[in-house]
Write a structure and sequence with these properties.
Layout (H helix, E strand, L loop, with lengths): L1 H10 L3 E2 L2 E2 L17 H23 L9 H8 L4 H18 L16 H11 L2 H14 L4 E7 L5 E7 L4 H4 L4 E7 L6 H4 L3 H12 L2 H15 L3
Antiparallel strand pairs: 1-2, 3-4, 3-5
Amino acid sequence: MQRILTILSILAVVAHGATYDLPPLPFGTSSLKPMIGKKTLQIHHGKHHAKYVNTLNALVAGTSLENQSLEKIIKATYKSKPGIFNNAAQAWNHSFYWKCMTPKGGGIPNENKHSKLLCDKINASFGSYDNFRKEFAEAANTAFGSGWAWLVSDAKGNLSVRKTIGADNPMVSSGKCIPILTCDVWEHAYYLDYANLRPSYVDTFLDKLVNWEFVAENLERAVDSGKNW
């Protein structure tokens, strides 16, 4: 379990002393145009994500949680302290989401450019990339209200698609699995650019934004960590 927490901490935001910092975007605020606009990223990262981080810092200050890793806070407060859990999970989810996107990304992963392991596992788990894409898009489009769509790995690299509502994260809501890709389907992630057309945003995310190099790295870490589960 400690190995899993270590892997997860690499993937998202980490603690510095008693506080959690807002990590910078891994790309410029204009870099994802026209798929995701500058104003969307400025508000989403600079307002929404920042508020989760700042609220978490205020909630854990002076408690036994303030020096814990973000992942440990998420696991410790799941279903018991929703205020802390929601802000910790949303801080982690957003940090992970930013890394899941890159300019000129998306489309079908290529085993030479990205990872043979990733391509093999997608085919083994879903039958084809098209089947994966259909299942992931359906999860993203049917998450009622606000939530997330996820691609997760088990200890052996078997992949599956999950959807969570609100701040939920599959590291706690889906048993032993490691997230390797996510798509944010809260309205503030896409409304300025796509209005109520969530399916168009999800299609764009999959076809033009997914950072398959990051996904492949996450899968390799998951398989490596699985040896010690």
